[in-house]
Fold this sequence. Notes:
By secondary structure, this protein is of the alpha+beta class. The protein has 2 domains: 39 residues, Arc Repressor Mutant, subunit A (Orthogonal Bundle), CATH 1.10.10; 78 residues, 2-Layer Sandwich (Alpha-Beta Plaits). Helices cover 37% and strands 21% of the residues. The chain contains 5 helices and 4 strands; from the N terminus they run H-H-H-E-H-E-E-H-E. A 4-stranded antiparallel beta sheet has the order 2-3-1-4, covered by helices on one side. Helix 2 crosses helix 3.
Amino acid sequence: MVRFSDFELIKLLMKNSRTPYVKLGELLGVSETAIRKRIRKLEEDGVIRRYTIEVDPKKLGFKVNALIGLDTVSERFIAVIEELKAMEEVLSLYSASGDHMILLECWFKDSDELTRFVKRLESIRGVTRICPAIILEKLK
């Protein structure tokens, strides 16, 4: 019988997906085998879709980390998304509700690169509003 929740395990993996199974077992009070089986099941069920890393963009020379809200005319929404997917500057792309229809995360070497990118976005047919926000510091 598993004595820990999937969410407890997932939170630990989100902090560091390279944590050894033995350490995860110690933290959750179960065996390494129980952790291994649970993670395999979470992967098979599509709960865990992939493993990734967290990077400090500034240490790679990207001084500007921006979240960009974007709105489109409804009939061009899918076409705009497809254009954004093809742009190498777009690291993450989300459809959203709230203030904007689309959210993008992008890294830039400097504010001039951001300005040029925003001008490219303005030229996409169907885009009605662009609202960049520069991330000053990641807090959590």
